[in-house]
Recover the amino acids of this structure.
């Protein structure tokens, strides 16, 4: 998953699964039971922001426990939106049945089904919301569109794995609206859509995008399986995305096929939502991705640059995260806890491969990709939290770190298993190339690790040793030691071996990093990580300071709001000018800041000018990075 363009930058939540068959988890039902019928009335989604759901659940008499989904695979967290479940009511043959919530498990309800009953009727309403300051997955609709995530509108009985519970879904759409989804359709009559029977795990993995303004763009014409971009937007103009971008998306499909050499889906849908009224995210699924960005993003060069890896990242998850999933995250239903111990592979390798595929498909130029790597390397090299928290601990803590605020992120560390794993896997890639004199690479790892029969969306779990053994197949080395050293390290500096081994050095100049420039243009804030040791929002609010660096040593801290710089009213331009002029200044940078209403003066002793990260070519060495970013597809 990725939460995009909020103050934090997270990536991806995935989706579902499972029943072990020869090491794989099938999404097909092994022992059919009577299906649960679910009918979702979405006709009020755009007006009242309510989804109404009716379920017919086959039952027998006696005690019954029903679950509301808690652990969402793509979220890596126990964050099922239970607080927005309302209007819950059960009946048998028209008679109301009492229910009570489990005192320990907020996601379980208990009932006593009367004698003679064979079917239980359940009704619930799900309250949609609007984007707020925190992550809210219920923010999934506007007046012109919505994204239906089935786990929000269903209950399922305790006792069977998710792949052995069949649903028959029906969806009522607002008049005149259409829809897109990877879910197979059985029939349609007007605004009512009947989907084919589907196991619970695949249903939850198959969101539906619906709206007034939709556009379907087929990709890689003539190729099987089929791929398409499905766009929903708040207005018609936003559907008209740049033709060059469509060309890049076509190249992305070709590059992913060349890299993975397999397809573990029947067809693939990029469900792209362009709206300012939903949570911005990228959420991976096996046969689709739920990609939501601001309405103007694709017509804004800065927006396109910052979100260039959205499709490559989420598409990669179909192989890495969906088809291959860490055993600790391949749970039988949505109530069992998931372990994040291998999320540096699930999300981290996906972030690396997404970065590579964005370059290979032309979504970012090689130069822009180097600027992206330099920006994240600098950020990670200034993580004060490296002194107490390993990369492995950020992975183990994934389920809580997604919801941590961006304030104090350097000292706390955030979901670094995304960004730092880009450096880790770049170093793996470079090391393989060096060990084999350029004959082998992570491309070979991908071919082996993600190989298997094409077609059905199955899940093949793995453990740490499977990663090590696959690396050893590609290029024998002590990969266990290599990985453990980087995962368990408390070294103060980021692992830059992939950059230096790839023929480049991380350097600092007074030229604004291109990614920082795009972020500044979009958000208005300023990133002074490598100079003052501070990140500031456009209104002067300090988002983060880095312990040990100038801003923190002057007593500044997150949540303070800068009022003036050097006697002049605050603006990002004034602060940047003070940093630029600092080498010739006669004294410290004087900052007035509000600390919860009290105005304080802070003298920032800084004299090193603007320090912006870039990669500089180390002439005379092999340029492996350039090789990595070159297109593979013919
Ligand atoms: Zn992801």
């Amino acid at each position: 998953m990725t939460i995009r363009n909020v103050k934090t930058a997270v990536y991806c939540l995935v989706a579902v699964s499972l029943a072990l068959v020869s090491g794989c988890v099938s999404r097909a039902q092994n022992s059919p039971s009577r299906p649960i019928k679910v009918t979702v009335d979405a006709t009020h989604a755009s007006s009242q922001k309510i989804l109404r759901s009716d379920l017919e659940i086959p039952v027998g008499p006696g005690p019954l426990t029903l679950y509301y989904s808690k652990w969402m695979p793509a979220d890596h967290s126990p964050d099922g939106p239970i607080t927005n479940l309302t209007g819950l009511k059960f009946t048998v043959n028209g008679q109301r049945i009492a229910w009570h919530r489990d005192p320990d498990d907020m996601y379980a309800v208990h009932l006593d089904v009367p004698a003679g009953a064979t079917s239980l009727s359940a009704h619930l309403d799900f309250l949609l919301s609007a984007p707020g300051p925190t992550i809210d997955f219920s923010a999934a609709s506007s007046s012109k569109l919505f994204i239906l995530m089935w786990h929000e509108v269903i209950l399922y009985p305790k006792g069977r794995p998710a792949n052995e519970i069949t649903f028959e879904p029906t969806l009522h759409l607002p008049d005149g609206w259409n829809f897109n989804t990877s879910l197979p359709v059985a029939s349609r009559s007007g605004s009512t859509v009947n989907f084919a029977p589907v196991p619970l795990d695949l249903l939850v993995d198959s969101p539906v995008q619906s709206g007034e303004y939709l556009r379907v763009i087929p990709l890689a014409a003539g190729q099987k399986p089929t791929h398409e971009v499905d766009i929903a937007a708040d207005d018609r103009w936003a559907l008209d995305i740049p033709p060059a971008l469509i060309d890049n998306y076509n190249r992305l499909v070709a590059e992913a096929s060349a890299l993975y050499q397999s397809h573990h889906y029947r067809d693939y849908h990029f469900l792209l939502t362009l709206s300012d009224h939903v949570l911005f995210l990228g959420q991976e699924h096996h046969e689709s991705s739920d990609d939501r960005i601001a309405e103007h993003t694709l017509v804004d060069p800065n927006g396109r640059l910052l979100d260039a890896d959205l499709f490559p990242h989420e598409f990669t998850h179909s192989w890495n995260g969906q088809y291959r999933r860490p055993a600790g995250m391949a749970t039988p239903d949505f109530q069992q806890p998931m372990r994040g111990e291998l999320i540096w592979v699930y999300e981290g390798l996906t972030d690396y491969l997404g970065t590579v595929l964005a370059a290979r498909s032309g979504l970012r130029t090689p130069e822009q990709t180097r600027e992206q790597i330099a920006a994240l390397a600098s950020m990670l090299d200034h993580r004060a939290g490296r002194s107490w928290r390993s990369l492995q601990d950020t992975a183990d803590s994934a389920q809580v770190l997604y919801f941590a605020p961006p304030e104090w992120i350097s000292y706390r560390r955030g979901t670094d298993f995304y960004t730092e794993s880009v450096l880790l896997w770049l170093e793996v890639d470079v090391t393989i190339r060096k060990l084999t004199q350029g004959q082998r690479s992570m491309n070979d790892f991908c071919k082996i690790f993600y190989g298997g029969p094409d077609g059905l969306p199955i899940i093949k779990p793995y453990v740490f040793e499977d990663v090590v053994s696959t690396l050893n197949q590609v290029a024998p080395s002590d990969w266990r030691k290599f990985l453990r050293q980087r995962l368990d390290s408390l070294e103060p500096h980021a692992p830059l071996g992939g950059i230096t081994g790839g023929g480049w050095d991380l350097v600092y100049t007074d030229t604004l990093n291109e990614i920082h420039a795009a972020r500044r243009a979009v958000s208005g804030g300023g990133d002074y990580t490598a100079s003052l040791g501070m990140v500031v929002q456009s209104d002067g609010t300090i988002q983060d300071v880095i312990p040990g660096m100038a801003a923190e040593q002057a007593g500044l801290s997150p949540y303070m709001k800068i009022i003036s710089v050097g006697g002049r009213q605050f603006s990002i331009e004034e602060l940047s000018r003070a940093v630029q002029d600092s080498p010739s200044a006669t004294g410290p940078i004087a900052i007035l800041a509000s600390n919860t209403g009290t105005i304080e003066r802070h003298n920032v002793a800084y004299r090193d000018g603007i320090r912006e990260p870039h990669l500089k070519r180390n002439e005379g060495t092999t340029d492996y990075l350039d090789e990595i970013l070159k297109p593979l597809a013919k």
User: Anything to note?
Assistant: The chain is about 25% helix and 25% strand. Residues 6-23, 28-32 have pLDDT under 50 and may be disordered. The first helix runs from residue 200 to 204. The pocket of zinc ion is lined by residues 1-2, 11-12, 284, 313, 317, 347, 350 (CB under 6 Å).
